[in-house]
Amino acid sequence: MRFNVITLFPDMVAEALSYGVIGKAIEKGVLALNCINPRDFAGNKHNRVDDKPFGGGPGMVMMYDPLHRVIESLKQQADVGEVVFLSPQGKQLNQSLCNELATMKCLTLVCGRYEGVDQRFVDEHVDQEISIGDYVISGGEAAACVVVDAIGRQIKGVLGDGESAMNDSFMNGLLGVPQYTRSDLLGQSGVPEVLLSGHHQAISAWREKQATTLTELKRPDLLAGTSESK
Ligand SMILES: C[S@@+](CC[C@H](N)C(=O)[O-])C[C@H]1O[C@@H](n2cnc3c(N)ncnc32)[C@H](O)[C@@H]1O
């Protein structure tokens, strides 16, 4: 899967996504990450990409022209896919939206800065707006990294163990189960006995029960079907 990230801080995004399973997947070419700086498309003498808002008010706004040129250039390469604007005003990201987006071949993520982007760009080019939560951060880069990571890990070949994404919280409407491993300090004390029994059926049954119990306790909304994460 290919991710285009339109950002004034391409190094920030490339660096943040260069670690762990996502970093390895990009290195191996299972995921493609293409960070594009609208400043390279400014088309003016001082490479300006922002200006004061019409009507006055504090802060600056990302200008239409550079962003429009980036999209047109991606379109010429037939490489734009679904255009997503990261925005606190968008639909809140959850697992089912990630799973849906993971079926696409290409996503173009637009990171705002300052007071946001010229609305005419959103109206003309954006297919959907996605928020990572009801709070405001200073730029779309951190949100874009969340989107790439959450979607990227659904893509075949990204996780070492192809099964492990399926056991994650939210994948089957339940939370994930508690995990235990070797400890020199604690030995095996506090580890549920069944996990040491070697009985795979009993372990599966215990995990299923744990997932339901934990979900009832921590996220009853998931079981009641009232959560937007379902
Ligand atoms: C300082 S914010 C601008 C917020 C804007 N003035 C508003 O009230 O909606 C700058 C950029 O950060 C990104 N951003 C901020 N909060 C976000 C969130 N919760 N989810 C996704 N992106 C966010 C957006 O790209 C936004 O354009």
Q: Top keywords for this entry?
A:
two-stranded antiparallel ribbon; elongated; 2 domains; Trp Operon Repressor, Chain A; five-stranded parallel sheet; 7 strands; 230 residues; alpha/beta; Alpha/beta knot; binds S-adenosylmethionine; 8 helices
Q: Can you offer a commentary on this structure?
A:
Strand 5, helix 4 and strand 6 form a beta-alpha-beta unit. The mean pLDDT is 95. The longest helix is centred in the last third of the chain and has 19 residues. The protein is α/β, with parallel strands linked by helices and 230 residues long. It folds into 2 domains: 151 residues, 3-Layer(aba) Sandwich (Alpha/beta knot), CATH 3.40.1280; 56 residues, Trp Operon Repressor, Chain A. The strands form 2 sheets. The protein has a 5-stranded parallel β-sheet with strand order 2-1-6-5-7, with helices on one face. It has a two-stranded antiparallel sheet with strand order 3-4. Helix content is 34%, strand content 15%. The chain has 8 helices and 7 strands; from the N terminus they run E-H-H-E-E-E-H-E-H-E-H-E-H-H-H. The chain is elongated and about 70 Å long. S-adenosylmethionine binds next to strand 5.
Topology:
Elements: E1 2-6, H1 10-16, H2 20-28, E2 32-36, E3 50-51, E4 61-62, H3 64-76, E5 82-92, H4 95-101, E6 106-111, H5 119-125, E7 128-131, H6 141-152, H7 200-218, H8 220-224
Helix pairs in contact: 3-5
The structure holds S-adenosylmethionine (SAM).
Concise description?
The chain is α/β, with parallel strands linked by helices. It has helices at residues 10-16, 20-28, 64-76, 95-101, 119-125, 141-152, 200-218, 220-224, and strands at residues 2-6, 32-36, 50-51, 61-62, 82-92, 106-111, 128-131.
